[in-house]
Amino acid sequence: MSQYTPLTKKIEDRYNEEIRLRENEDGSELSILNLGPSHPATHGIFQNVLLMDGERIVDAEQTLGYIHRAFEKIAENRPFYQITPLTDRMNYCSSPINNMGWWLTVEKLLGIEIPKRVQYMRVIVMELSRIADHIICNSILGVDSGAFTGFLHIFQYREKIYEIFEEICGARLTTNMGRMGGFERDWSDAAWAKLDKFMVDFPLAWEEFDRLLTRNRIFMDRCIGTGAISANRAIEYGFTGPNLRAAGVDYDLRVAEPYSSYEDFEFDIPVGTAGDTYDRYMVRQQEVRESLKIIRQALDKMPKEGGYHADVPDYYLPPKQDVYNNMEALIYHFKIVMGEIPVPKGEVYSAVEGGNGELGFYLISDGSRVPFRLHFRRPCFIYYQGFTEMIKGQYLSDAILIMSSMNVIAGELDA
Amino acid sequence: MGAAFRSSTYQKNIMKEGIDTNNSDVKMVAAPPGIEGEGFFATSLDAVIGLARSKSLWPLPFATSCCGIEFMATMASTYDIARFGSERPSFSPRQADMLMVMGTISKKLGPVLRQVYEQMAEPRWVISVGACACSGGVFDTYSVLQGIDKIIPVDVYVPGCPPRPEQIIDGVMKLQELVKNEPLRRRNTPEYKALLASYGITVN
Amino acid sequence: MSLTKEIILEKITAKFGEAVKVDAESLDYTAVVIDAAKAHDLVKYLRDEEGFNFLTDVCGAHFPENDKNAQFAVIYHMHNWVDRFRIRIKSFLNGENPVINTVTDLYLSANWQERETYDFYGIEFKNHPDLRRILNMDEMESFPLRKEFPLEDQGRTDKDDRYFGRLPQTNNLPNNN
User: CA A329 → CA A113, A314, A319, C8, C158, distances in Å?
Assistant: First the structure.
């Protein structure tokens, strides 16, 4: 069954010991089930070796690293603007949040002030990608419990979000959005028009999706009461994001440590009570509505002046006409492309509220144009440790739903 | 011959349901070359089986990373790969025709991919979707397999990072061309066996 | 009274004295450097008495330019949610034999993060319940994030060095000519 990974063999040996030691009253014995790494229901490539008593899970052990791409090592060899595509590919369901988080870290290191308009535009992009992430999580939770219609219906709106991203930066999924100091180009009229249309159409579609699942008898029976975790245990395990809020703790980085002008917006933090699968689903449902509120406020309060980037000629490429006509712009262009930008020596840590929780970037710089050390604090990696505790004693089918509702994304798990 | 093939169906449809299939918006599939008569159509088995196989390729989505999300978009209603015959994504290797490897394959995952490929039943095809599966992509590192064709034979490569759903469908269509024109005996030929032997895959 | 940088530094230096110093490298949050032997006690003190209820991050770093006793570093980020205060704790470790106490008994989230640090740097965490590789292949013998370990796969034969900025006469890859 598992001749291809020696680690799985070690886990199985340990389980075989336990099987030998314990025997049920009716003569049946425990069994080992290997869930993954290539499995339709796991959203990504990670493996769980389960010790089962019939349908109930007695023990579980996770093995990761099947998509380890050594981001932290690559980052030590790339200039700052070449690290953005790497951050895209961590939580690839909501790439712009990762990109913006990285730019906020770099701007913290370099001490760049961002104009209000750019900050509001960043907020819009981050909230759109948070909506996209929650669309995937909740619709795939429906698919895993057998409800395919919700996925098909709501995924059209993810295509609409992709179209907006395409207007802004040219790419659908791995966006590589933003530069040091703002955006690479101003948002076209088509982008604003698509955004306005999205804000009219999507809330209705979200309510339709809600009606399919939220009060659905079958869905509720499958989700309520499974995979519960208490608030204290969740904090010990390092949970952040919707999983923690479902357990009852109202910790949200956008409110606790506001970045990029989040303090200008009024929104609520949805909080669950039991920390089970249903609560996680409901928290994400409500968070999408809150994100829509934030985007609406940002659109209403968007300042007219401010351009689309900060005035930092040391770091932001000048427009091409100036490079060809103006000596100063030519020199700046040369220095930026050749990497002679003034970078201070020092360390910073900056975190944003990603789709899954606190996404942190710890950057040690030694003054050169590549980081000396870049560490990503990935929320999925940290809270996935709690999975074993959440599935002990549950049925196998519940374990699939619990994994789904935790929104484990393999790119972020392994990085 | 092709026109004759179409006109008999046209007559039937017009009389039965009033559907006008002579309308140029409806593209009929061209029939393979063969001999036609009243009530029968004789052609070679290769052509018919090739036609049937190419229009019903069941994928095994081996989705690893970002390309997997674009595959989900391809499977969803806007780009709908089910129109091309891939109605049932089969996660069981025995029941799948084409293995779509989407995303980065690390060296740790290599043996898993190999085992999934070996479990597939002939005839099987492989599409490598995305730059990471084709050649390692952006990740030229110690832990990433620089292309799945290091361990399994690949039929169609779809570049992109991630490729748009239209590109993935284009890859499937190119594979459909390959499947349509493949002779039935190909899997037993010494050249194919030599190809598998060069990868170390034993045929049993 | 909410925490500020001065208050917390005063309390830490009062408790730990000579073992702790302020880290001048930090550009944002309060940061201290502490001896490896006392790091676990500092984390415990901050958790129990100063209200740092959350361990944000545990990571490692490799400084090959430093002297022998300070080549590896383990960095902890802790967060006090009530006072909204973050702190960074750094401990330097010996280059030949990096050993430090684990904080898994204080925070469960440190388990896999320390395994990751071990996997990347070879830093040994004493009393860790299950210290083994987590992200790389189990058979791997070297520690890839150390600075001397190359980024790229050395066994490739298909790269043309002209496109990688490496001239043929100065490369030392075995299979390139």
Answer: 21, 10, 8, 46, 40
Q: Which helix (H) or strand (E) holds A278?
A: helix A277-300
- Tokens for C40? 């676990």
Enumerate the residues of chain A whose CB falls inside 8 A of the CB of residue B103: 67
Q: What tens-digit pLDDT sequence spans chain C (177 residues)? A: 577 888 888 888 888 888 888 888 888 888 999 988 889 999 999 999 888 999 999 999 999 888 888 899 999 999 998 888 899 999 999 888 889 999 999 999 999 999 999 999 999 999 998 888 888 888 888 899 898 888 887 777 777 777 766 665 545 555 444
Contact between chains at B141 and C153 (C-beta distance less than 8 A): yes
Q: How high is the pLDDT of residue C165? A: 67
Question: Is the CATH code 3.40.190.10 the one for domain C5-150?
Answer: no
Nearest in space to A209 (alpha carbons), one of A308, A258, A141, A111: A141
CB A51 within 8 A of CB A18: yes
| Region for residue A266 given its phi and psi (left: phi exceeds 0; alpha: psi -120 to 50; beta: otherwise) | beta
Contacts of B66 in chain A (CB under 8 A): 88-89, 92, 173-174, 411
Q: Tell me which chain A residues have a C-beta less than 8 angstroms from the C-beta of C135.
A: 64-65, 68, 414
- Quote the DSSP letter at residue A376: E
- Mutation target to probe the C interface, by most C beta carbons within 10 A, among B108, B140, B142 is B142
Concatenating the DSSP letter of every residue in A232-253 gives HHHHHTT--THHHHHTT----H
Give backbone dihedrals phi and psi of A363, rounded to 5 degrees, phi first: -120, 120
Give one word for C79, left, alpha or beta, with left for phi > 0 and alpha for psi -120 to 50.
beta
Question: Cβ separation of B107 and C151 shorter than 8 Å?
Answer: no
Instruction: Please give the distance of CA B147 from its chain centroid, rounded to a whole number.
Output: 19
**Taken in order C67, C69, C73, C76, is the CA torsion positive or negative?**
negative
Which residue from A52, A387, A399, A348 is spatially nearest to A222, judged by alpha carbons?
A399
Closest C-alpha to A332, from A342, A320, A323: A323
Pairing of the two strands C124-126 and B59-63 = unpaired
Task: Please give the backbone phi and psi of residue A228, each rounded to the nearest 5 degrees, phi first.
Answer: -75, 145
Closest approach of A341 to chain C, Cα-based (Å): 18
Structural domains in chain A, CATH included, are: 7-63 (no CATH), 71-312+339-414 (1.10.645.10)
Residues of B whose CB is below 8 A from A70 = 139, 141-144
Q: Does the interface predicted TM-score (ipTM) exceed 0.85?
A: yes
Q: Which helix (H) or strand (E) holds A116?
A: helix A116-144
- Give the DSSP per-residue string, C36-85: GGGHHHHHHHHHHHS---EEEEEEEEE-TTS-GGGSEEEEEEEEETTTTE
In angstroms, rounded to a whole number, what is the distance separating the alpha carbons of residues A331 and A311?
16
List the alpha helices (DSSP H) in B76-140: 110-119, 131-135
Q: Which residues contact A200 (CB under 8 A, 6 or more apart)?
A: none
- Name residues whose C-beta falls within 8 Å of residue A89's C-beta, 6 or more positions apart in sequence: A69, A71, A95, A174, A411, B65, B66, B138
Per-residue pLDDT tens over the stretch B51-89: 899 999 999 999 888 898 999 899 888 998 999 988 888
Do A333 and A339 contact (CB within 8 A), yes or no? Answer: no
